[in-house]
Write a structure and sequence with these properties.
about 150 residues; alpha/beta; 4 helices
């Protein structure tokens, strides 16, 4: 498998030797392939990760899998920098049920918050600790969530 080079326009102002390239590591949260599974057909499902990883692999990207258990209290602190505590508590309450519909785009299962905290804290720590570009692949997505609910 060959390594693929990412050229990012945001790095164009950095002086670097001729031929220098920026390599992006692809890191996949393995639990994203098994947790947060919808009861019915839904576009947000574990198969998304499988399809993406397959395509990245075919393009020659080296994919690394991680599977972490995180400190929920610490992950909750990080999440509360972005989301209202009341909203986080609401989602935690809903996730105690086997399956809940948050809105027309978002569902929760009994393991959704565990996975959300894992991906949230791992993504945060990767962003702070690495000196290289990383494409972190995880679920569930958080782009629908605003400070206190649906953002879009």
């Amino acid at each position: 498998m060959r390594e693929r080079v990412f050229h990012h326009p945001g790095f164009s102002n950095i002086s670097r030797p001729s031929g220098w390239a920026i390599l992006a590591r692809v890191i996949v949260e393995k639990q994203s392939t098994t947790k947060h599974v919808p009861l019915e057909k839904h576009p947000e499902n574990p198969e998304r990760i499988t399809v993406l990883v397959d395509r990245l692999d075919k393009q020659g990207f080296r994919v690394e899998y991680v599977s972490r258990n995180v400190d929920v209290q610490e992950a909750r602190k990080i999440a509360s920098r972005i989301h209202a505590r009341g909203y986080i508590q609401y989602l935690e309450k809903l996730s105690r049920y086997n399956y809940s519909i948050v809105d027309e785009d978002t569902y929760l299962t009994s393991d959704s918050m565990e996975l959300a905290y894992t991906t949230f804290q791992t993504g945060y720590e990767l962003a702070l600790s690495l000196n290289e570009p990383v494409f972190y692949v995880s679920r569930p997505p958080g782009h629908h969530a605003g400070r206190g609910g649906k953002a879009m």
